[in-house]
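Notebook entry, structure prediction.
Reason for the run: the old model in the group folder had no record of what sequence produced it. Starting over properly, with the input documented here first.
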Amino acid sequence: MHEHEQALFTLAFRLVGNKDDAADLVQDALTQTWKTLSQVDPSAGGYTKWCFRILHNLCIDFRRKKRPRTAEDEELERTIDKQSVRPEEVYENRVTSSQVREAMLSLDEKYSAVLLLRYQEEKSYEEIADILEVPITTVETRIHRAKKMLQAKLKRQL
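New structure, fully documented this time:
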């Protein structure tokens, strides 16, 4: 598992936004993975997927304790479902990586997680569905909504 430690750290850091917290969460995930190794079916994706799932759940728990969901989050989600924002309207090469990182951290964890797993960790939809224990259609929907919500947040910053 230590060969995947950097990828795990990157995911944790992107989800929680703090290096120290991310390092602690990775260590917790590795420890829990080691303790529950007997529960892993190597033919079903193996230990890496198991560790990513544990890390994801730890990050979600951490974020929930740190920042409760707000009415603004729910309103943005409803608005995104009702409107279509074209990417060319939002991006004109004026968005910095820190603005994107900040906007990602402000998304509800179910949306930031799918974006990070897909684009940062380059996981397939099937792998993401396995890690998050949701159907593939849910992954597709969350990625679509997450992109729209991220675009809207970045548009407000411009």
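Summary: The chain is about 75% helix and 0% strand.
The old model has been moved to the deprecated folder.
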